[in-house]
Design a protein that fits this description.
- This protein has 2 domains: about 1-25 and about 140-164; about 25-135, no CATH class.
- Helix content is about 35%, strand content about 25%.
- By secondary structure, it is an alpha+beta fold.
- α1 (about 1-20) runs antiparallel to α4.
């Protein structure tokens, strides 16, 4: 029983340290890209859009590295871009990079397929438009959730042990 308490205390301490780490900054724009100044792309400090000629693999590798170089990378249906990025967002693919229990980075790209949708800015042709949205979390909120989960776990464990 004492060994279990020591193990639980170590897990709690490791989780507290992980959750107290500072969040990464919003990623910089990819090399060779230009930032969109359209009103819908500049209305939030946690959402930016860029025009770029990078491939999907290059874009995702870049943002994965910019977001700390670790995390879970999940592919989402492009239809969800209107919910997680912005309504009326065009999307060819949508991916998210998650730091579990912490922050999330959504990366959406629109790759035009029709001639009318081609992207030409200042007489330069771009292959796609990438919209990035970061959903940060505050360290106080993360640690509060850890305390609540720990408290609930202790109550459940105590109830389980008392039944034996």
């Amino acid at each position: 029983m004492k060994l279990l308490k020591i193990f639980a205390a170590m897990v709690f301490l490791i989780m507290a340290i992980y959750l107290a780490l500072p969040s990464p900054n919003f990623p910089q724009l990819p090399p060779g890209s230009i930032q969109s100044i359209e009103p819908g792309d500049t209305e939030s400090i946690y959402r930016r859009a860029y025009y770029t000629n990078l491939t999907r693999e290059e874009i995702m590798a870049y943002y994965f590295q910019q977001f700390g170089g670790w995390g879970l990378q999940i592919i989402l249906p492009p239809e969800e871009a209107q919910t997680v990025i912005r309504d009326q967002t065009k999307s060819s693919y949508l991916e998210e990079i998650i730091h579990p229990g912490r922050e999330v980075l959504y990366v959406n790209a629109f790759v035009p397929q029709l001639p009318k949708d081609q992207i030409n800015i200042n007489k330069v042709h771009y292959l796609n438009k990438v919209a990035v949205r970061m959903v940060p979390s505050h360290v106080i909120g993360r640690l509060t959730m850890l305390l609540l989960v720990t408290g609930a776990s202790l109550l459940l464990f105590k109830e389980y042990v008392d039944k034996k």
